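In the design runs reported in the main text, the only information available to the sequence generator was the tokenized backbone. The following block is the verbatim input for one such run; it is reproduced so that readers can re-run the procedure and compare outputs position by position.
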């Protein structure tokens, strides 16, 4: 796949896409253009009629607007979850991307541009004070969120983290002095985490916090600004604990948690099969020798709508998304699903080790599980043992080549 971004040098809106590309193993070429010249040509205006950058050329056609470009690249793989692991998380990723555009980029630009492009954007004290105030206010909101969250969305890095981190590179390195960062300690912790990730650091570069606020030409003083202090809230710890205990008691119990303790640990099973990569073929015998027939069952699954996956690309994305959305049942399940076929004859086949004696009701928590037909198998039958080994290891199934294999582990 040939992807090229056209931009001016050192554009932070491009860096976020390059980091997403690094996470997804996608190569993106960057072509620097001369603004006012190259972006006025008929060829460029055919890609983006506004003449603005960045613009990306793809095999399907051009894309402009930096978040659209970011989401295109972030969505090229589903297993990295850069756009969110489920429907809710995807909406929250979009929420934070909109927040960056509407609450961060505006005041950031008003503060930064008079410093780096003073001949075009002359310094204005009133706009500077307003920009600094608005940016700190927005980051205080982020700081409150990060007080109880490691990342912006869920417990993993998404495109939202990458976009905000990229937007804050210049401010952290040049504008946020000790007084400023003291107001947003959780943002500082989060930002250092994101920019120093192995996939991100080679693109963002070595990051150092500013020791003083840079000033624009014509600026004579630093505006000392502090965000309003939140009113102190007194907490009744006993009351909070009582409410927590009541909520825990009222929470419906999972039927699988009520089962007698099993001598077979599902986590040990998963570790046994993946003690060697990509699979420990020696573990099948141990697995069946220790299988708890009272505490677990075996099932197979077949996709109900094979006519919808008769193209390998969409089939790979669909299966990757399904396994990702199985996260709510991971604690009680070990499974493997393959995509086999070619052309107009693709199908998904799965094998599952479920806690309990039947197909668990928690499968209803997986939004698209109903698109698969689950059937119990006889765990004592040699045919079941052979089926499990086949799905785990085969390169061809029923004469059809296996083009993808995904484990829920």
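Verbatim output:
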């Amino acid at each position: 796949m040939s992807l090229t971004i056209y931009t001016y040098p050192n554009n932070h809106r491009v860096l976020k896409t390059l980091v997403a590309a690094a996470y997804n193993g996608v190569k993106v070429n960057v072509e620097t253009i001369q603004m006012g010249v190259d972006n006025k040509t008929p060829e460029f205006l055919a890609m983006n009629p506004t003449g603005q950058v960045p613009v990306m050329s793809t095999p399907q056609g051009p894309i402009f607007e930096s978040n659209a470009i970011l989401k295109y690249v972030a969505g090229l793989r589903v297993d990295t979850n850069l756009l969110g692991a489920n429907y809710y998380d995807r909406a929250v990723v979009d929420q934070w991307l909109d927040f960056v555009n509407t609450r961060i980029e505006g005041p950031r630009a008003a503060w930064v541009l008079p410093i780096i492009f003073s001949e075009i954007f002359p310094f204005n004290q009133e706009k500077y004070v307003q920009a600094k105030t608005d940016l700190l206010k927005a980051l205080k909101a982020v700081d409150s969120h990060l007080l109880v969250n490691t990342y912006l969305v869920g417990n993993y890095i998404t495109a939202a983290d990458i976009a905000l981190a990229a937007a804050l590179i210049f401010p952290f390195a040049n504008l946020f002095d000790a007084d400023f960062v003291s107001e947003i300690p959780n943002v500082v912790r989060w930002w250092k985490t994101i920019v120093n990730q192995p996939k991100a650091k080679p693109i963002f570069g070595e990051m150092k916090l500013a020791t003083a606020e840079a000033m624009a030409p014509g600026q004579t003083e630093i505006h000392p600004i502090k965000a309003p202090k939140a009113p102190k809230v007194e907490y009744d710890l006993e009351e909070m604990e009582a409410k927590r205990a009541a909520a825990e008691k009222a929470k419906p119990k999972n039927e699988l948690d009520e089962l007698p303790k099993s001598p077979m640990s599902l986590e040990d099973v998963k570790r046994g099969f993946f003690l060697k990569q990509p699979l420990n073929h020696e573990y099948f015998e141990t697995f069946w020798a220790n299988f708890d027939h009272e505490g677990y069952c075996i099932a197979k699954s077949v996709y109900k709508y094979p006519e919808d996956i008769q193209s390998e690309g969409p089939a790979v994305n669909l299966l990757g998304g399904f396994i990702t959305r199985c996260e709510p049942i991971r604690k009680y399940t070990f499974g493997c699903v393959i995509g086999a076929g070619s052309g107009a004859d693709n199908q998904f086949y799965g094998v599952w080790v479920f806690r309990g004696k039947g197909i668990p009701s928690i499968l209803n928590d997986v939004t698209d599980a109903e698109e698969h037909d689950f059937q119990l198998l006889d765990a004592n039958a040699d045919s079941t043992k052979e089926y499990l080994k086949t799905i785990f290891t085969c390169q061809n199934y029923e004469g059809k080549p296996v083009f993808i294999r995904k484990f829920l582990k």
